[in-house]
Design goal:
12 helices, 2 domains, alpha+beta, about 45% helix, Nucleotidyltransferase, domain 5, two-stranded antiparallel ribbon
């Protein structure tokens, strides 16, 4: 019978499958918790992996008599082939190791990374990239009250991690909360999953930031890139410009609540081609009909040089 969803986890000797690190354990379960595959493997090149052993507890002695991954990869491939979606925690890490060892993972197979979903719910910002900080599986499991003692397998055993991943996945996507709202004068309970609530908060946060930027633009006078003056209405409707201002605002020291400063910083530090990029991006995101109308008006409002690059007229 075909498994719509499977949960996969691996334990390895390190982080780099194409630089000599190898698989030590692979586990696969279905969403009912049935074990589809669980096996330890003897590395064919590594003889010790002390750092990884401190985490996963798998010693060279434990896998000395286990098969090589090549002996079992056909079984893994059969399970993947018979599935629609792979669920994991840092899914691409596990898939990368499996592929490096002969696993056939179709490019069009759906994948779900519970780590990415939970990072947004946990909400800790990553100051080094534009997003949320990834959390350990143990953090996610503890967040939802997972009882590790209910199974013999512990954390960092791939089978144990499969069950913890499934638990967190179900909490994110199945458990719901009732959010009350007044709609047409009536109090209505809206049932949402944590993932849906987190997504709603992100949408609201982005909308709020966008409105703050629009308000800041209204307060400003002349807006220029170098000597090129830009209209407020044009900037208000430029998703690229709004995104750049939000990014700059998030990078500002101490997150100063000053969008005017972020706007000025984006414009002051723009290169000479930035205005053209804004126009190009604006046009690319319009419907064909709107684009034709925009081009007609743009040709009247803009000068074109020999390379057909727009130069916004003042």
């Amino acid at each position: 019978m075909k498994n719509k969803y499977i949960i996969i986890d691996t334990e390895t000797t390190g982080f780099h499958p194409y630089d000599g690190d190898e698989l030590l354990q692979v586990s696969i379960i279905d969403t009912d918790g049935n074990v589809l595959f669980d096996e330890y493997f003897k590395p064919q090149h590594r003889t010790e992996w002390k750092e990884a052993e401190q985490v996963n507890g798998i010693s060279p002695e434990m896998v000395a008599d286990r098969p090589a991954i090549s002996e079992k990869i056909s079984e893994i491939n059969a399970i993947i082939e018979n599935s629609d979606t792979i669920i994991g925690y840092n899914t691409q890490f596990d898939i990368g190791f499996l592929k490096a060892n002969g696993a056939i993972v179709p490019d069009d197979i759906d994948t779900i990374d519970v780590m990415e979903d939970f990072a947004e719910i946990y909400g800790e910002r990553n100051s080094f990239r534009d997003g949320y900080k990834w959390q350990k599986l143990t953090t996610a499991a503890d967040y939802y009250g997972y009882d590790w003692s209910q199974r013999a397998e512990t954390a960092h055993n791939s089978l144990g991690d499969c069950y913890a991943t499934l638990f967190v996945y179900n909490k994110i996507n199945s458990d719901t909360m009732i959010i009350e709202r007044v709609i047409d004068g009536k109090r209505v309970g809206i049932e949402l999953t944590p993932a849906e609530i987190s997504q709603a908060y992100c949408i609201k946060e982005n909308d709020d930031r966008r409105q703050d930027i629009l308000n800041a633009l209204d307060e400003m006078d002349s807006l220029k890139i170098g000597n090129t003056e830009l209209s407020k209405d044009f900037l208000k409707n430029s998703n690229l410009f709004i995104s750049d201002v939000i990014y700059r605002y998030e990078k500002m020291d101490d997150h100063l609540e000053d969008y005017n400063m972020a706007i000025e910083d984006v414009l002051d530090n723009a290169d000479k081609n930035y205005a053209g990029k804004l126009v190009s991006h604006y046009a690319q995101n319009m419907s064909l009909a709107d684009k034709e109308q925009y081009i007609e008006s743009a040709e009247m409002a803009m000068d074109w040089n020999d390379t057909n690059e727009p130069a916004i007229s003042r």
